Amino acid sequence: MIKNIENEVQRRRTFAIISHPDAGKTTITEQLLLFSGAIREAGTVKAKGKKSNKFAKSDWMDIEKQRGISVTSSVMQVDYDGYQVNILDTPGHEDFSEDTYRTLMAVDAAVMVVDSGKGIEPQTKKLFEVVSKRGIPIFTFMNKLDRDGREPMDLVAELEEVLGIDAYPMNWPMGMGKTLLGLYDLYNKRVEIRRSDDEDYFIPLDEEGHAQGEHAFKSSSIYSQALDDAQLLHEAGNSFDREAISQGKLTPVFFGSALTGFGVQTFLDAFVDLSHEPAPALTVADEYIHPTDERFTGFIFKIQANMNPAHRDRIAFVRIVSGRFEKGMTVTLNRTGKTIRMAHTTQFMADSREEVQDAFAGDIIGLYDTGNFQIGDTIYAGNQSVQFEELPQFTPEIFMKVAPKNVMKQKSFHKGIEQLVQEGAIQLYKTYHTEEYILGAVGQLQFEVFQYRLLNEYNAEVEMTPMGSKIARWIDEEDLDPKMSSSRNLLAKDRFGQPVFLFENQFAENWFKDKHPEVRLKKLM
Ligand code: G4P
């Protein structure tokens, strides 16, 4: 059967979950897989997630051996209620890296999972900042309602204050922890109750906002508290605004428990309804390519190397922007003009990889790569060339000096560094005058991956000297003055030769700004 592009695009939903480690990202992903019928048993995803979390940093190679697991789970595609849902993993913990940020450039929505006992934590804030610049819908799930957490009003106020986004509570907890009675659902105008057999049931609200019929819970103070809160939200809170949600200006907030599944289906149903189909993408020629355009186009946002050490294969992850991808089709890689037959592509399921037969805008496909692709590359079918806008680079936060151990291996050292930098695995800097190599990364693991790959793929052993965390700020070359150097900053240049100061800490940056108020310090995204 020939699939209709418009229908296929309409039912696509591509999103990532942003959260601080341990907020419940894995658990809620698993619930989605359960509801969609992709897995039958709870614990499947978690067991896998746990396995890689357990490894110490130096065991990266062992993690790599298990990559079959963590990579297939880095993109998952499931059917949920007629929608084709693509979930992109944003690695946290030790795996946190620029890849995590770049993945957010390939999604149309984000789900922010917050531990209701803890509120907004640092990693959530960082990821939120990247997502909010894109103006895509952001859905909030306040998790772990089965435990005693913080006051719901505090949580919502903190979310608005710390992240600077308006919030609209879609439902409101009736108690929490041991006293959890259910959810007062303002959006669907019903009360959601969890029965002891884990089946939820719903009681519609009457005109006054009371649960219809006779129920024991109606005489409890927890229920009247929820009614009071709902009244307050109605009078003093934000109004529901679909357009604002769609533009990422208003985040719908859902309460629930990923572990017990309570509130999860309500959340998922609203998510697929309120999030939108794949968006058009802008080209460097300032044109929008629309998802329903006949012609296939896509861009590469991530390259994962060495997934199978025996084959040294790499997989380039492509976000499809428009048209229909068909197995075996020929595409052009815009940067080089080279044509490539897409014979071996892979799509990612919950626990296996499958050859792709066809795919549409919003889908992620994996191309087996022998070194053709770079992050940010555009591929397209047909004769008319397309180049999507460049993906942003992210300001690295930790730095490391690096040098070859054996001077005889200089050549392979340089070749290795050049290729890994191109791949986007790590950022390269040099001290401004002495040209010593400095690596910059968003997460510690990137250094270990770098060291391991340089040794295994380029046979170059390296000496690494940690420099710790720094604040990197770019300045215009004409502003540069030798007097600006101090013991609290290090002047370096990036791989394009642009000057960048590495400040010891916030104090050092502020001190610099006081001394040189005329100089503009810039950061990457
Ligand atoms: P992450 O992927 O965001 O890092 O978090 P993950 O889902 O692995 O959850 C982190 C911990 O929080 C796990 O406990 C998980 O069971 C628990 N958790 C997740 N959602 C809920 C919830 O709604 N309620 C409660 N009470 N706990 C939740 P753990 O002790 O680290 O693992 P395990 O020993 O339970 O497997």
Quaternary assembly: single chain
Small-molecule components bound: guanosine-5',3'-tetraphosphate
Number of continuous helical runs: 14
Overall residue-averaged pLDDT value: 87
Radius of gyration: 25 Å
Low-confidence stretches: 46-72
Net shape: globular
CATH superfamily of the largest domain: P-loop containing nucleotide triphosphate hydrolases
Brief summary:
GO terms for molecular function: GTP binding; GTPase activity; translation release factor activity, codon nonspecific; translation release factor activity, codon specific. GTP binds at residues 19-26, 89-93, 143-146. This protein is an alpha+beta fold.
Walk me through the structure.
This protein has three domains: 2-274, P-loop containing nucleotide triphosphate hydrolases (Rossmann fold); 281-380, Translation factors (Elongation Factor Tu (Ef-tu), domain 3, Beta Barrel); 398-515, Peptide chain release factor 3, domain III (Alpha-Beta Plaits). It is built from 14 helices and 30 strands. The protein has an eight-stranded antiparallel β-sheet. A seven-stranded mixed β-sheet has the order 2-3-1-4-5-11-6, with helices on both faces. It has a seven-stranded antiparallel β-sheet with strand order 27-24-26-25-29-30-28. α2 runs antiparallel to α3 (44-54). The longest helix has 16 residues, at 221-236. It is globular, with a radius of gyration of 25 Å. The model is unreliable at 46-72 (pLDDT under 50). One of its GO terms (molecular function) is translation release factor activity, codon nonspecific. Residues 10-279 form the Tr-type G domain. GTP binds at residues 19-26, 89-93, 143-146. Belongs to the TRAFAC class translation factor GTPase superfamily. Classic translation factor GTPase family. PrfC subfamily.
